[in-house]
Each structure stands twice: as structure tokens, then as C-alpha cells.
Amino acid sequence: MSKAVVFQLDSERPNLKRLMRVVEELQKGSVVVVPTDTLYGFCCDIAAHKAVDRILAIKGLPEKHFMSCICSDLAQASQYVNLDNQAFSILRRILPGPYTIVLEANRAVPKVLLDKRKTIGIRIPDSPVARTLVETLGRPILSTSVSTPEGRSLLDPEEIYKLYGSQVDMILSQGIIPDESSTVLAYEEGEWTVLREGKGKVDFL
Q1: Going by C-beta distance under 8 Å and a sequence separation of 6 or more, which residues neighbour residue 152?
Q2: What is the pTM (predicted TM-score) of this model?
């Protein structure tokens, strides 16, 4: 079985030619490991349903498992979720940043990704690599954190390669990153709920 291609990328000024290679892989329906402003994530094009199935199989997750939707900015996010003025005002202050925002999905989100609540998590990470990828692709990428079968986050790309190099198509390496999960917030009918406290502060609520 072939092994994943590994690209070294500068976190602030990623090589654009290499990023274009990654975009081409995503367009083909590949599974790519991408660094964000928190953890490494298994990622794929939101339109690549077979790649979603591959990620769920790699992690041993059930169908319709929660996956975050990485967007380049709020304008792109608003194409996939319903944002009222209150939510938009808050999100404009804290994003890009280490937050996952669970919002009501609209019809642009493939039904295969939604559970009965019809919500999806939106991420706009403070990561030039992730946001440039999405901006160049022209639509969001789906992401779930890279971890061992026991649930330990994998922070070293060499360890990721050893464990998953034969199951993914490409790994973008920024070296060892801190073990910091995103803060998860839910917004529904004007009310905010903190689902998980992580790297992002919640003192603005």
C-alpha cells in the first residue's frame, strides 16, 4: 500500500506551489492531514462523500459523527449555516481563532453530514495554511482531530505518519504542535452554550 506524501509548510508563509498540490488532492477526493491553530486534523473536501467515509473508517467512527467545517471567513461560512446579526457580531470579534461554533446548517450542507439536530460545527482557524487551502479550493473542508484509536491527540507529524501514513494521501507538517483543543460553542435562538472549554477564552459571553 502506498504511503502518504509529506509536505513541510511554514505556518505563516506556506509555499503556494505546495498548497496548490494539496488543493488538487482535495479536489480528487483525497484525505489530507492538515494543521490548524489547535490540533492536526483529518481533512477532506466537503463535497467528497467517499472521503468522508474514509475518515470515519480511519478513526473507527459511526456514520454522521460530528465533523467540523473549516471555512476561510464568515462570508463563506454564511453560505452553509444560518447566522443572525447577534451571532455575526460575536463571531466577527473572535474569528479567526481557536473556536468551533455549532450552528444551524442550511441546504448547502450535504445531508449525509447532518444528524437529527441539523447542525454543523464551523471553524475559521487562525492558521494561514488551513484558510488559504479553503480559500483556494473555493469551498469548506471537513475536519476531525487526528488521534490514536484510544483517543490520544497526535501532535507529532512523524508519529502521524507511522500510524496513518498508509491510510491518508498527504500530510502537511508544521512540526510538533501544542496539545490544545478548540473551544466549542453552540448558538441557538439567541442563546450561547459552552459545550467544551479549550484554547479559546469565553469571557466575552
Answers
A1: none
A2: 0.93
Pairing of strands 170-173, 5-8: parallel
- Nearest-angstrom CA–CA distance, 106 and 16: 32
CA distances to 75, 86, 127, 138, 205 from 34, in Å = 22, 31, 10, 17, 30
- In this structure, what C-alpha cell is assigned to residue 98? 481557536
Structural domains for the chain: 31-164+180-196 (3.90.870.10)
> Measured between alpha carbons, how far is 71 from 133 in angstroms, rounded to an integer?
9
Tens of pLDDT, residue by residue, the chain (205 residues): 578 999 888 877 888 888 899 999 999 999 999 999 999 999 999 999 899 999 999 988 776 677 899 999 999 999 999 999 999 999 999 999 999 999 999 998 888 787 777 899 999 999 989 999 999 999 999 999 999 999 999 999 999 999 999 999 999 999 999 999 999 999 999 999 999 999 999 988 7
- Distance CA(144)–CA(62), nearest Å, equals 13
CA distance from start to end of the chain? 49
Question: By 3-state DSSP, what share of the chain in percent is helix, strand and coil, each rounded to 5?
Answer: 30, 25, 45
Angle at 154 between CA 3 and CA 96, to 5 degrees: 105
Q: How far are the Cα atoms of 53, 113, 143 from residue 65, in angstroms, in the given order?
A: 10, 8, 11
